[in-house]
Amino acid sequence: MPVLPKLRFDFDAYPYLTPDLPGVDGVIRHRPQDFQVDEVPAYSPLGSGEHLFVRIEKVGLTTRAVVEFLRDRLQISEAQIGVAGLKDKHALTRQWFSIPARYEARLEGLAGLEGVRVLEQARHPHKLKVGHLRGNRFRILIRSGDGAGLSRFRAEAILRVLEHQGVPNYYGPQRFGIGGLNPLKGYELVKQGKVHAPSWLKKFLVSSLQSLLFNDWLALRLQMGLFGQVIEGDVAKKHDTGGEFVVQDAEAENPRALRFEISATGPLYGKKYREAQGPARALEDQVLQKYELERGHFASRRGDRRLIRFPLTEWGVEETAEGLWVSFFLPKGAYATAVLREVMKRNPEEGELEAEMEE
């Protein structure tokens, strides 16, 4: 029986889009305030309705901790609390929560949780649900690891390329658990079904394996020079409308890919995802075969397609005595670490971080 590649997430093993541009190195998250995230909602609250949208700033806390505090202090069930996505613990983040409007008077109790501030609130007819966000604005301080100055010009050169060509849409370390070993547990689950865990954890472990396979597919496309173009049989997506189609004539479609109007999508294997055809399907098969997997192993999951790249907008670099403040906007589901690893030319994260909910 052949020896399989290690089923462990290793960000350092993936190719860069900008390998010829030197990075700035440095470190992030020296303090939570060094990593700032502002959630951009998909819509604004209407000002009336049975639910209260509350914008909360938190420092050094998980989103889960805030939800539990709301539950306990307001004396309501978790099912009544809405949130669009999870935000990192080791950061200063601002995000929206929703609660039934009849509990508005109890919000004064939030003063008992250190590191939390209510910034604004407004009513809306419906509860806030997972995924109801447009994206996130980031402002991140990269500090020098050795006390030397960091090059703003290096950072700007890399960000210009990412703005033009897009950012490789890798899943970040948050998706894979401590040591990056969750895909291995997911592998054991789909191959043997012998992992003793609650259903929600099994779902998360298989999702982690799906994410690793997507990253491998993306890395393969980069290595083959197929990042910013489509090939026959690709399931491509239109960036403006989100519409998907199977590429029949790659030569005719690639000018649109060059203009960043369309991009290839990669597989999150499952029972209902749209399958690629021809040469594009062969590349997806190659990733599965590396781990002796088949599409049928993911019958318990719905499946989906994920863009190979995402746009980088609203970016800027500010040079200060502390280091480089790098800012940018990312659409929902995109990881800031995918941008930072290109700028820094190394895995920017260490340890376990909170993953963002996408499903």
TrEMBL record:
Its EC number is 5.4.99.27. It comes from the Bacteria. One of its GO terms (molecular function) is tRNA pseudouridine(13) synthase activity. GO terms for biological process: tRNA pseudouridine synthesis. It is an enzyme of class 5 (isomerase). Belongs to the pseudouridine synthase TruD family. Keywords: Isomerase, tRNA processing. This is tRNA pseudouridine synthase D. Responsible for synthesis of pseudouridine from uracil-13 in transfer RNAs. The active site is at D88 (nucleophile). The gene is truD. It catalyses: uridine(13) in tRNA = pseudouridine(13) in tRNA. Residues 166-310 form the TRUD domain. PROSITE patterns: TRUD, UPF0024. GO terms for cellular component: cytosol. Coiled coil: none annotated.
